[in-house]
Amino acid sequence: MKRHLILFATSCLLLSAALQPAAAVTVVPEGNRNASQPGVPAASAKRTREMNTTYEAKYQKIYNLLKTDSKLRAKIASVARTYGIDPVHIVGALVGEHTYNVDAYDRLQTYYVKAISYVQQGLNFDYQGETIGEFVKRPQFSACAQFKDSLRLWTCREDVWDTDFRGNTVGGKRFPDNRFSAVFFQPFYAGQSFGLGQLSPLIALQMTDMVNRYSGLPKLDADHATDVYKTIMDPDLTLPYMAATLKHSIDVYRRVADFDISKNPGITATLYNTGGADARARTLANANAARVANGEEPQLPEENYYGWLVNEKIDRLRTLF
C-alpha cells in the first residue's frame, strides 16, 4: 500500500510539473531596432579602401553571385532544410561577410579551386612549434575533459586560453594577448578566415559534432589541419557549418535568453559576425532579469552594423528564394 501511495504521489508531482506553464519565449520581430546603421569598425573601412572599392560595390557583387548562380541557391536551400532554418539566415551571413569583411569571387568555382590550393600546401595548427594537440594536454585544460561534445569542449578550451594563457607567461613560455583562434588556428596571418562562409577553423571544430549529426560529414580533428581548411574552403562542406552555427545561435537564444530570433535574420547575422552566441545570450538574460526585477521591460536583442544591413536589404534577399 505504501509503495502505491509513493507512486501516486510521484505521478501527481510529474503531472503538476507538466501542467506548469513554460517560460514565455518572446519572438523578436523583423526589422532593425536602430533607426540608423551602427558604426562600421575602422578595420573594415580600411580594408575596403585598400581594395579600392565600396561597401555598396561589395554588396552588389555577393548579391549578383547569389542571384545568378542557381546551383548555389539550391545548395543553400537544401542545407537550410536539413538544419530547420530559413535560407535567408545563410544568405544574410554571406551578404554581411562579403560586404564588410572580404570581397566575393565572381564564380563559385573559384572557391573550389582555392580549397584545393590550401590542401596542397599542408598545414598545422601550432604556436612556436607546440601543436594544438600538445597544447590542450596541459593540466590547465583538464577540466575540459568532462565535455564530450565538440562545442562545449572547444568552448571550454577557449575559455581556459582566455583566463590562463592569454597575455601570460606559463611554464616559461610567453603567450600573445590575442584570441585563441588567432594564435593557434590561423597559420598564414592573424585575423584570417576562409571560404564562402568566412569561417574560422575554431568555429568549425566547435560545430563538427552537430554537422556530423545532421549532415553526416566526417568529424574534424584539430591535429589534421588540412582537413579543417578543406572543409571551410569547399562550398559544399562549408555551407552545413554555416547552417550549424546559425542554428546554434537560434537555439541558444531561445533556451538561455527566452528569445526566438528565427524571424530576424539581422540578429542571426550579427551573432555570426561577432561569435560568442552562448555568452551573449547569458549576458542578455542576466541583464533582462535585473530589468524585470526593477519593473522595467526586457530589452530585445539588437543588430550591429552588419546585421543592420541584412535587415535593411531583407526584402530583396528574400526574393532570391
Describe this protein's structure.
- By secondary structure, the protein is mainly alpha-helical.
- It is built from 16 helices and six strands.
- It has helices at 2-19, 42-50, 55-68, 70-83, 87-100, 109-121, 132-135, 150-165, 180-184, 201-215, 225-233, 235-257, 265-274, 277-293, 305-312, 314-318; strands at 26-27, 126-127, 130-131, 169-170, 173-174, 259-260.
- The strands form three sheets. A two-stranded parallel sheet has the order 1-6. The chain has a two-stranded antiparallel sheet with strand order 2-3.
- A hairpin with a 2-residue loop joins strand 2 (126-127) and strand 3 (130-131).
- The longest helix is centred in the C-terminal third of the chain and has 23 residues, at 235-257.
- It is globular and about 55 Å long.
List the helices and strands and how they pair.
Blueprint: H1 2-19, E1 26-27, H2 42-50, H3 55-68, H4 70-83, H5 87-100, H6 109-121, E2 126-127, E3 130-131, H7 132-135, H8 150-165, E4 169-170, E5 173-174, H9 180-184, H10 201-215, H11 225-233, H12 235-257, E6 259-260, H13 265-274, H14 277-293, H15 305-312, H16 314-318
Parallel strand pairs: 1-6
Antiparallel strand pairs: 2-3, 4-5
Helix residue percentage: 55-70%
Q: Please give the number of β-strands.
A: 6
The stretches of 5 or more residues where confidence is low (pLDDT under 50) are 1-22
Rg over alpha carbons = 22 Å
Strand order of the largest sheet: 1-6
List the quaternary state of the chains: single chain
Strand count, sense and barrel status of the largest sheet are:
2 strands, parallel
How far apart the termini lie comes to 63 Å
Q: What would you call the structural class?
A: mainly alpha
**CA-based shape:** globular
Overall pLDDT, averaged?
A: 86
Written as H for each helix and E for each strand, in order along the chain, the element string is HEHHHHHEEHHEEHHHHEHHHH
Number of helices: 16
Beta fraction of the residues?
under 5%
